[in-house]
Amino acid sequence: MTTAGLEAVFLANRDKLVRFLIAHGAGDAAEDLLHELWIRLSSAPAGGPIASPLSYLYRAANNLMVDRHRSIRQAALRDQDWSETVGESVPGRSDAPSGERILIAREALDIAQAALATIPPRAAAIFRRHRVDGIGQRAIANEMGVSISTVESDLRAAYRALVEARRRIDEA
User: Fold this and answer.
1) Cα–Cα dist 18/15, whole Å
2) How many folded domains does the chain comprise?
3) Do 155 and 127 touch, CB atoms closer than 8 A?
4) Average pLDDT, whole number, for the chain?
5) 134 and 167 co-located in one domain
6) Which residue among 17, 81, 108, 146 is the one 20 to 30 A from 165 at the CA level?
């Protein structure tokens, strides 16, 4: 059976595959998994014949479900490790940063603002729109009526000023 034939078997048995995934623990992710299976089938190069295409589809769907389960489990373990490393909330203890950390952060902000004051105003504005407001370079270029290469050049100027300010801090 060719890839086109496998796709036809997939379409003819779509409901069965969804029920299979739900019954085997995919839950709400069953449709997403099935969509991922469809994408893989349609983009796969034509291979050799498949003796039992429906069994092949069930196996592929199950493998996708297992992969997703492993991925979710790994993400949870990674989050747990991060929480243990960084530290979790402790009852009776504030999660707010200490006064010292606040002071250090304010000083760093003052230094960054002073560094940005040394570059042209448009470059500083572009930097703030991109890094603080999270606006993409193309949108900033359209907003300010400049080319994307101008936005990139202004961002490089801002980064140079900040790196130089950081270098002075590290040397002090």
Assistant:
1) 5
2) 2
3) yes
4) 87
5) yes
6) 146
Give me 70's structure tokens.
Answer: 């492993």
Number of Cβ atoms within 10 Å of the Cβ of 166: 14
Residue reference for tokens 């002071």: 103
In the block, residue with structure tokens 């203890």: 93
DSSP assignment letter at 93 = S
Q: What is the pTM of this model?
A: 0.47
Q: Give the long-range contacts of residues 27-31, CB within 8 A, separation 24 or more.
A: 29/65, 29/68
**pLDDT per position as a tens digit, 39-59:** 888 887 777 778 899 999 999
- State the Cα–Cα distance between residues 139 and 148, nearest whole angstrom: 9
Range of the structural domain that residue 51 is part of: 3-86
Rounded to an integer, what distance in angstroms lies between the CA atom of residue 168 and that of residue 41? 56
Are residue 106 and residue 77 in the same domain, yes or no?
A: no
Q: Which two tokens mark 93?
A: 């203890």
Q: Which token pair is 109?
A: 């902000």
Q: How confident is the model over 85-107, as pLDDT tens digits?
A: 766 666 666 677 788 889 988 98
Q: In angstroms, what CA-CA distances link 74 with 63, 67, 152, 166, 172?
A: 16, 10, 37, 36, 42
Please indicate, yes or no, whether residues 38 and 105 belong to a single structural domain of this protein: no
